[in-house]
Amino acid sequence: MTVTLPDPAFAGREYPATQAYSVGREKVREFADAVGALHPAHHDIVVARGLGHPDLVAPPTFAVVIAQRAEAQYITDPAAGVDFSRVVHADERFTHHRPIVAGDELVTVLHVDSVVHRAGIAMVTTRCEISAVTADGHEPVSTVVSTLAVRGEGR
Amino acid sequence: MSDKPVLEQLAVGDVVGTRTLELDRPRLVRYAGASGDFNRIHWDEAFATGVGLPGVIAHGMLTMGSAVAVVEDWAGDPGAVVDYQTRFTRPVPVPADGTAAVEVTATIGAVDLEKRTARVDLTVVHDGAKVLGKAQALVRL
């Protein structure tokens, strides 16, 4: 089997904004339950509003749900050369410009920041800029940076 | 919920929370559904061993997402977590029966009185070894 590593020529690529993702209350509750996040601001609208949020607050890693959809544009492109069976998640970072809340309509612009080959392994770093659709345009909400390690031949 | 922490009263090295995560196969399946990450290595034993893993392993994002709950509870507001990052240093194998225990300890790593933030460092251990590296949550207080 010939193993190909991700194409370095994809570094620097920016994708068009995704369709809006609608953050639903039940999805926030479902995700919070799945990670054992019991804080009532994820579950109880009265508590969330009491803390000054407009609606249920998504857990800090909820943005992965949205980021993953955007990243699929790159990962599933055969030309990108990302063999998912050889992928290991190396690191992840969420920066919240404001919390994600139920009711948000979020669009994502995916960037491939780097594709680096080193000792038979490719490190691929993507960045998702997630913003809310508002009456005046777009409001920055979260930045999600993810690095995948892709093992090459004999690794 | 407990009272909100006061930045001026925090010192580097303070342990602000501990928790044991009990990860079992149903939890992995639940996380797969909630997150949309249906990679077979997280629920299909034959597939996982076929790609060289010791068996089914937990989603790194499940461990990351579960560990930070201790920080949210301490902060008193999940929206106070403004930045959260980690490296995935070691997989957590989850047996077909029973659970994999993951120990989480949250410690103050830095306090910034000007920016009104505390950095909480998470030590996340399974089977005597760290499974997350440089796991840090920045909390605005």
Automatic annotation (TrEMBL), chain A:
* Pfam families in UniProt: FAS1_DH_region
- What sequence ranges are listed for the domain FAS1-like dehydratase? 9-130
The record, for SUPFAM superfamilies, names: Thioesterase/thiol ester dehydrase-isomerase
InterPro entries linked:
FAS1-like_DH_region, HadA-like, HotDog_dom_sf
Which family does the record assign? Belongs to the UPF0336 family.
Question: Which HAMAP family does the entry link to?
Answer: UPF0336
State the name under which the record lists this protein. UPF0336 protein DNL40_00040
Q: What is the lineage of its organism?
A: Bacteria, Bacillati, Actinomycetota, Actinomycetes, Micrococcales
From TrEMBL, chain B:
InterPro entries reported in the protein's UniProt record: Fatty_acid_synthase, HotDog_dom_sf, MaoC-like_dom
Q: Which Pfam families match?
A: MaoC_dehydratas
Provide the Gene Ontology terms for cellular component. fatty acid synthase complex
Annotated MaoC-like domain ranges read: 13-122
Which GO BP terms apply? fatty acid biosynthetic process
Which molecular function GO terms apply here?
A: fatty acid synthase activity
Q: Which family does it belong to?
A: Belongs to the enoyl-CoA hydratase/isomerase family.
| Protein name in the entry | Acyl dehydratase
* Species whose genome carries this gene: Xylanimonas oleitrophica
